[in-house]
Amino acid sequence: MISLSKQKKVEILNEAKNLISNSKGFYVIDYKGWNVAEINLLRRRLKENNAKMKVIKNTLFTLALKDMNINIFEKFEGTNAFVFVMGDEIQPLKLIAEFISETNKGALKLGYLNGVKYDEKQLEALSKLPSVSELRAKVVSTINAPIFKLVYSLKGLITNLVIVLNEIKNKKEE
């Protein structure tokens, strides 16, 4: 393996710190077994959902966390990719879980969102939750349902009133 120069390591460390500080959190995934096409496909899907996947040396990522006083008591080992979440925290997690299921390769290892660490089982449970946009849609439809019922009820009453008034008018004209 080619050794990175000290300058390049500093650049990567600063980039990792920048990604951590500008995100709501990150997921650690094991990408063992994925080919380049699969990695690029997942990267594109994540980018469309306001997340960024980056492969960073485990030691450099650990240093970045230490420099930022983020202690998640985890030693990163193996082939890890780090997914930084800029928007909805759940949608990228759903994409990762679906992708792992599709390819039957890789694994979710860890999540760190808004200052809270999540293990594999917690991430699996979170991945089954609806996204923020889905939750908003459900709330709006729940709020709107009684209003729509009221509107249709009033519309029916008004229609009946118009029919009765037309009948009265027709009888008076006779």
What topology does this entry show?
Layout: H1 6-21, E1 25-30, H2 36-48, E2 51-54, H3 58-67, E3 80-85, H4 90-103, E4 107-113, E5 116-118, H5 120-127, H6 132-173
Antiparallel strand pairs: 1-3, 1-4, 2-3, 4-5
Helix pairs in contact: 1-3, 2-4, 4-5
Do you know the CATH architecture of the largest domain? 2-Layer Sandwich
Order of helices and strands: HEHEHEHEEHH
Q: What's the overall average pLDDT, rounded?
A: 86
Poorly predicted sequence stretches spanning 5 or more consecutive residues: none
The CATH class of the largest domain is identified as Alpha Beta
Strand count, sense and closure of the main sheet? 5 strands, antiparallel
Strand order of the largest sheet: 2-3-1-4-5
- CATH superfamily membership of the largest domain: Ribosomal protein L10, N-terminal RNA-binding domain
**Whole-Å distance between the termini?**
101 Å
Query: Which term fits the overall shape?
Result: elongated
* Estimated radius of gyration: 27 Å
Instruction: State which percent range the strand residues make up.
Output: 5-15%
The number of E-state strands comes to: 5
Structural class: alpha+beta
Fill in the CATH topology of the largest domain: Alpha-Beta Plaits
Please characterize this protein's 3D structure.
It contains six helices and five strands. It has 174 residues and is α+β, with helices and mostly antiparallel strands. It has two domains: 6-129, 2-Layer Sandwich (Alpha-Beta Plaits); 130-174. Strand 4 (107-113) and strand 5 (116-118) form a beta hairpin. Helix 2 (36-48) packs antiparallel against helix 4 (90-103). The mean pLDDT is 86.
